[in-house]
Every structure is written in structure tokens, then in C-alpha cells.
Amino acid sequence: MASPGEHHPAFEEYCECIYELLEENVEVIQARIVERLQVSRPSVSEMMKRMEAEGLVALSGSSIALTESGEKLALRTVRRHRIAERFLTDILGLSWAHAHHEAGRWEHVMSSEVEMAMDRVLGNPTTCPHGNPIPGSQYLATLVMRLVDVAPGRGFTVDRIPEELEFTPGLLEFLETAEIQPGKSGMVSATSPDGSVTVEIDGQRIGVGPFASARILVTAQ
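Below the sequence we write its predicted C-alpha cells.
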């Protein structure tokens, strides 16, 4: 049972999902939540009714929006998830993929005291390991573009790996191994009509498929 003033982890999970879809400029409808959370359409439909009754979401036709209460819950959950990811990678040395899954558990049980302590130990980071902003931090947005839009022969620095890619099986492991990570610089050596991109990073030539290249955000040099 949730403590007074808190919400069931399922509500946190759904508010977090809606927030992240909005963060990626994706229209929030039930089908997008089904895809992201890998749950059935009836389950999402029932949860939306419950969350509307709790005052966490507002439904208008097929569109779903967070209420003020829903956004507050989402921000708290996302903040704890991203701080946990940073702690698990930077302090404990876990891989990106392992940290992402583990943080999905920590976000529901972390107290405010632990959250503040982690933030202090980490030096008040502004992003998670994948470059996504930590709510409530001093994050400053930069002018970014999609990797697929960088012209061949032009340099880039990886800025952000959006949450959608974190949910794609095997992709976090690939990006971490290939060192396609925030802060890493490289050059686009070739592009293909299907959106595939070949990049050079740290002396490696790496092929990035169209799904990832259309979502990885970089700053051009």
C-alpha cells in the first residue's frame, strides 16, 4: 500500500511514461502507452479511468494529458529514476542497460532523504547517463539536431539518447559498447537513403540503423 500523500507504483509508472512521451514531442494516446510499457490496450484503458478519477490525467477524446498533480508525480518519479541511473553508473559502475532496469525499481522506493543524498554525492548532476535532463536540476538546453540530419564529413558531439531508445531491446548495450555516448565526438562518414548512418568515433567506424539515427540527438560541429 502507498503511504499517505504517495501513489501506487503503477500510477507513478504511467505518469512517468506520459511525461517522457511529451518530452519526445509524441502525441500521447493509449496506443503510444501500450507500445512503451508493453501492456495490453484494455489494461491501459482501465488505468486511464483510474488515473482520471485520481485527478492525475485529463482525457479529451483520444488525447491524454497530465494534470498538475499528475505532472508533479511524473517529475518526482523521473527525477529519482535519472538520479538513480547516474548513481548506478558513476558510483557503482553498472552498465547503461543494467542501471536503466535497476533504476526502474529504485524510483518507486527511494525516499526524499536518499534522493537528496545521492544528488549531493554525485555533485548535483543535470542529466542522466544518457543525457536526458534531470527535473529540478540546473540543466540548460542546447541546440541539437538528429544524427541522421548531420551531413557526411561533418563532425558532431552526442548530446542525448532519448528514453525511447532505452526501451528498445539491446540498443543501450550497443550504444554503450560503440561509445555513442553523451559528450563523445565523432564524424559522419556516410549516410544511406533508408536513414542509416556510418559514424567514426574514437577510431571506430560504426553503422547506426535508421531507427536510432533518427532519434539520437547531437550538436553539430
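Residues 68-90 form the longest helix (23 residues).
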